[in-house]
Each structure stands twice: as structure tokens, then as C-alpha cells.
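Q: I have 242 residues here and want to know how they pack in 3D. Can you give me a structure?
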Amino acid sequence: MHLHPIVHDLLAAGLVAATPPPPSIADPGTGLASLERGLELLGLFVFAVSGGMLAVRKGFEVVGVTALAGVTALGGGVIRDLVLGDTPPRAFRDVAYLLVPLGAAIVVFLGHSVITRHLHRSVLVFDAAGLGLFTVTGAVKAATYPTTAIGAVLLAVVTAVGGGILRDVLANDPPQLFQANSRLYSIPAAVGGAIVVAAVRNDWYTGVLGAGVAVAVCAVRLAALQFGWRAPMPLRAPTAAD
């Protein structure tokens, strides 16, 4: 049976529109969706705590503490989603992504003295935990989009360090990434992101691998803070006294 070309085009367009996109491992209904969501929500919490603790240290009031906690938690993921074209970003589609940073801000506002008493350099410790968690979740999401492998790794790093950079800038501090005495920060995230992207693209990613990479990135960052590990400096770079 022959159809009019316009009718044929309309039917074809309908059939194409009705074809769902291939599922991502982070999509609801897939095996690792709940694990990835759990890692991201945990990352939101610890990053929000780091932002809230810095706000308390700077003497901010309740609005400032809440705002800095939220920006720190959500900044990197929002940038990632905008670059990938996943709009509105998940932070504005899933209420849990707003409630978790809010809850963290309340915890910090009421219990910051307890956190400080039991955890030395609390801002950097919580920042390291968020760095590891967001490296994994950022890499997983970017790897399921049609980006290059390098592009996916870069988005993993942006997810991991973006919120921390925004936190420091808003608090009028030099970002950790750009300090002259900066310890290893983006490099562990890049290495971890590369491992996760390779695993996702080659279908051997598992939850155990993701959790292991998150722990490893966090551990390397904490070790760098403890032992003063730095990235290589330019050859014959001038010193502050020059």
C-alpha cells in the first residue's frame, strides 16, 4: 500500500519519537541505579558539611551557612548536567537533592562545635570525601552520554571539584585547586574518573569498583594533605621571593 509522502513522514516521526533511548546504568530501573543515587546523595551531604563548616568559620549567619552548604553540594553536578544537556539539572528535578544539603546545613549550624572538636581540619576532610564520591558519580553519568572518553573524565573532575571551587570563591578564599601550596586535588579525581569511565564504556563497571575508586580518591587526597604531596612544579619556576 502506498501512502502519501506527508502521511509517511508523520508516521515515521511518530515511530522514531516513540522509541526510547538506550538505558543508562544510572537510570531508575537499572541494577546500579540505587547505588549511584546513594553515592551521590552521600556526596551531597559531605560536600554540604564542608561548605557549612567554612561558612561557620567565616562567621556567616544562618542564610550564609545554608547557601554556602547548598552551593558546595550542588555546584559541580549542576555544571555537569548543563554541559551534558540534562536539563533541568537533577538538583531541580529531585527534591532529595535539595533536602540533603539543607539537612547538612542544619547539622552544621547546630553541631559545628562537636564536629570541630572531634575532627581536625573538618572542611578539608569532608571535602576529600565529597571529592571521591563525586568523582565516581560524575564519571558514571558522563560516560553514559555521547562524549569522548577525555570529555567524560573532564566532566568527572568538574563534578568533583566544581562545588569546592565555588565554595572557596564565595567565601573569599583562594580555591584549593589554585593555591601555590596546593596538595594533590584534581589529579586523584582525574585518575579515578578515567578508571570509572573505562569501566563503564567497556561494560565491566560494578558497584564494588565504584565504591573502591571513591575510597581511593579520598584516601589519596587525605594522604596528600597529611604528607604534603604536590603535583610537579614547572622547571626553574620562580619562587615567592623572586
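Q: Anything worth noting?
A: The chain is about 70% helix and 0% strand. The first helix runs from residue 5 to 18.
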